[in-house]
Amino acid sequence: MAQDTRKNAWINNGTFAISTCSGTPRRSRYAGQALDDTASWYFFATIHGQYVNQQGPTPGYPDWGYLPAPPPVPNSPKPSTSVVKQYWGQCQHQSWYFAPWHRGHLLALEAHIRAEVVAAGGPATWALPYWNYFGPGNDYTIPLAFIQATLPDGTPNALFVEARYGPDGDGKIYIPTAAGGAGHPGDPNFVYGIVTQDCLKNTIYNGSNAATKAPGFGGPKTSFWHGGGNSGNLESNTHNLVHVYVGGAQPGSGNGGLMSDPSLAGLDPIFYLHHANIDRMWAEWNSAPANKNPTDNAWLKGPAASGAHEFVMPMPGGRA
Ligand SMILES: [Cu+2]
User: Fold this and answer.
1) Which of 142, 139, 94 is nearest to 239 (CA)?
2) Model confidence pTM above 0.90
3) Rounded to the nearest whole angstrom, what is the distance from the C-alpha of residue 121 to the centroid of ligand 1?
């Protein structure tokens, strides 16, 4: 089988050129809308985190169904209680499971999309692109395919998201990396500081030393951990800062963008290109021989090794 290598979204100038395929799409623009379909786009967002009917008798933002479209976000139908318990709200944050859990989430979504791409006549080697905001030139800005409201054929672009406000709250999406910051001199909105890849200089996954501040590159040892506490260095800066700068907040209401909240973030397609870059950074860190992943059974086998929640993902034709 040919290797499916993830490509930089900024090749071909960040347009649709690398993501379109010759076949006719089999489904509507917002394919897979059914919230209770484990293969749907929205289901994959619930796996990360969700606000489905959670805001009580007078719902509003950020309850799903009360978010500004596009995309239109469903609040129903809910899957069975057992499916909800098994899959929803699994994302691992402030944990040494942060990097591997998100890798599994990406692999599963990638497998579903690849199956659709192949069915539409595209290549079996299709893989998620990544957004490397540390790249040259203007790569710190979001690839163009995500900011156009319509596709070249005039139909709505499913990559375009209304609630994506950016560091300055004006819908212009860029990351204040060193280059992004230099491109916006004197901008008062970089309240979380400059986004760096200094975490790649760390030399231990869990713990600290002269090159690594606590709790380490990969995060603190936890059991199944949905969030709270200290982020690992890859998670805090780079990952967290990119989330809050992309999502930003709506001027006036102060409502955060989708990327600003883990229970909304998976609804924004850029989420997966951001995480593909975080995944790439983890692989880059591992490419230095001295940088070792944990060898503890509790990390290798996941929280299920101690009887806690098992990590599962829906895969095409089953689960893994
Ligand atoms: Cu994330």
Assistant:
1) 94
2) yes
3) 31
